[in-house]
Structure formats: C-alpha cells, structure tokens
Amino acid sequence: MLTILMPVFNERATLPNLITRIRAIPIDKEILIVDDYSTDGTRELLQSDVDGKYPDVHVLYHDANLGKGAAIRTAIPHAAGKYCIIQDGDLEYWPEDYIPILHAFCSMKTDIVYGSRFMSGPPRNMKRMNRLVNALLAGMVRTLYRTPMTDEATCYKAFRTEVLKSIPLVCKRFEFCPEVTAKAIRRGYRIVEVPIRYEARGMAEGKKIRWTDGVSAIWTLIKWRIVKF
Questions:
Q1: What pLDDT score was predicted for residue 205?
Q2: What CA–CA distance (Å, rounded) separates 86 from 157?
Q3: Could you please report the per-residue DSSP string of 102-153?
Q4: What is the pLDDT of residues 109-122, one digit of tens each?
Q5: Domain range list for the chain
Q6: Strand 157-160 to 112-116 pairing
Q7: What value does the mean pLDDT of the chain take?
Q8: pLDDT tens readout for residues 92-110
Q9: CATH tag for 2-226 (out of 3.30.428.10, 3.30.200.40, 3.90.550.10, 3.10.450.320)
C-alpha cells in the first residue's frame, strides 16, 4: 500500500480535484491530509466534505500554522503503507506519476525514489530563477554528498515507510526537502530518480515558497553535511 502524505495550507481551490485524481489511481493507497491551520476555507471544506467521508482518506489538523515540514512530521507516524510519498495540495504535480515511482522501488532495488522534474527537459512555466536555484541545490548534493541528483527540491519524494520513519527530522518549513535528502544519504541510502510531469504555478495561483526558503535550503544542505544527528 502507498501512503500519500499531504500537508495543506490554503488550498481550497485545488484540493477537491486533487483528492478525486488521487483516489482514481488504481493502486492500494491511503491519503493522510494535514491541514496546517488554513484560513481560506480549506479546513471547513475538509471538515464538511472530506473528513470521515472516504475510507481511504484521513485528516489531521494543526491548531496553528507550523509549516510544511511540521505537517509532514505530524503525518509520518500515522503512515500505514509499505511506501509513502509527499504530495503538495496544489496541481503542479501529477498524481498519476505515483505508478512509475512505485515501479522503480522494485525494478531498481532501492529504498528511496525521487520524481525528477528535469530528466525530460525544462518544466513548463518554471521561472528562470527557480530553475537556477533548483540546479544549485542539485549541484550541492552532487558535490557535498557525492550523490547523483537532478532535482533535490522535488515534492515527489517517495520512501519505504520504515526508512522515512527512521530518519530523525526537525524541519518546520520547506527545509524538509534538503534535510531528508541529506540525512538519508548520510545514512547510506541510495536515492533513485525517475522522470515526472510538472507544471509550475505562480504566486497568483497560491505558490508559497519564497526566495528566503532557497537560502534556507542551501544552509540546510551545508549544515547536515557537518552536524551529527
């Protein structure tokens, strides 16, 4: 079974369509949604139309806005599937790509699979600065951790659940990505990448990551190369 770990904050416009698409994928799965104290009606939508309405969907609620990393950490202990994957609450990524990601676990004999947005060429609509930051982060993984990487910052990070549960995470915001990457590599796990589809959205569509999160990601990769954990 695949557990989808879905942190959400102010995603009322996209969440119903996203849940429908995920539930339609023909695999054994569960969806764990963590509402990070949304203020746009997302929480009310979950309470009225989602929570308790589907046997494969479970909702957890934060009493304050703690950040994406904190929401993922809240969800991890509840994961019951053999594998788990991170899913943002928007529609930049295609849930249908879960299938090739799952296939890679067996075909490539690995414990961690990342869906790369760059293996099939530049993503549609991604701004030049975002491409540069993504290239920098992937290059830092290759340099600091001696590990092949084309897309360190991808949302679609999938793990054997027991592996993810074993990694001691302290992240609160978007530094989940570099922290889990750094700690997984330092523990000796091999990360395999497979190509996925992606269509970037802008700030007007609700994108929340800021340039300061890029700085934080750079520092996180450096820190966890040095600091013991």
A1: 54
A2: 6
A3: HHHHHHTT-SEEEEESSTTSSPBT--HHHHHHHHHHHHHHHHHS----S-TT
A4: 999 999 999 998 88
A5: 2-226
A6: antiparallel
A7: 95
A8: 999 999 999 999 999 999 9
A9: 3.90.550.10
